[in-house]
Amino acid sequence: MRRRVVVTGIGCVTPVGNDVETTWKSLCAGQSGVGLITHFDASNFPTRIAAEVKEYDFSRYCDGSNRFESAGRNIRFAIGAATQAMNDSAILDSDLSPERLGVYLGAGEGQQDFMLFMSMVA
């Protein structure tokens, strides 16, 4: 049996942009997201550079964002990217049956807050 897959929406939070348009423009311009580490004091480490997400405003993507204060940054990034993808797809405005809907989520390493994330999206 052949199955077809349709990508209906995308979203991303990256070191070169906190949305698809900014990330794409940065990549096309050859910009790097690598810089000095700012999220903690790295002066005692041999490596002081990293590709950090900058200027991310989680409250743009989640009402009542205070309930996610203890969530790992990767979970807040995943929620932001998923919100962007859902908005991009306009899937919530469609009459698509939930049984026909699938979601692929890719998130980088970080704290293991999977159950908290799933309780938000379920």
Considering DSSP H and I runs of 4 or more, what fraction of the residues is helical? 25-40%
The biggest sheet, with number of strands, parallel, antiparallel or mixed sense and barrel status, is: 2 strands, antiparallel
The termini sit apart by 30 Å
Low-confidence stretches: none
Number of strands: 2
Integer-rounded radius of gyration: 17 Å
Arithmetic mean pLDDT: 84
Total count of helical runs of at least 4 residues: 3
- Write down the CATH class: Alpha Beta
User: In the CATH hierarchy, what is the architecture at level 2?
Assistant: 3-Layer(aba) Sandwich
Q: Tell me the structural class.
A: mainly alpha
As for the CATH topology, it is Peroxisomal Thiolase, Chain A, domain 1
Count of the domains = 1
Features:
single chain; mainly alpha; Peroxisomal Thiolase, Chain A, domain 1; two-stranded antiparallel ribbon
What does this structure look like?
This protein is mainly alpha-helical. It has a single domain, classed as Peroxisomal Thiolase, Chain A, domain 1 (3-Layer(aba) Sandwich). The protein contains three helices and two strands. The chain has a two-stranded antiparallel sheet. The longest helix is centred in the middle third of the chain and has 17 residues, at 73-89. The protein is globular. The two termini are 30 Å apart.
Please sum up the structure shown.
With 122 residues, the chain is mainly alpha-helical. 28% of the residues lie in helices and 5% in strands.
Summarize the topology.
Layout: H1 20-28, E1 34-36, E2 49-51, H2 73-89, H3 114-121
Antiparallel strand pairs: 1-2
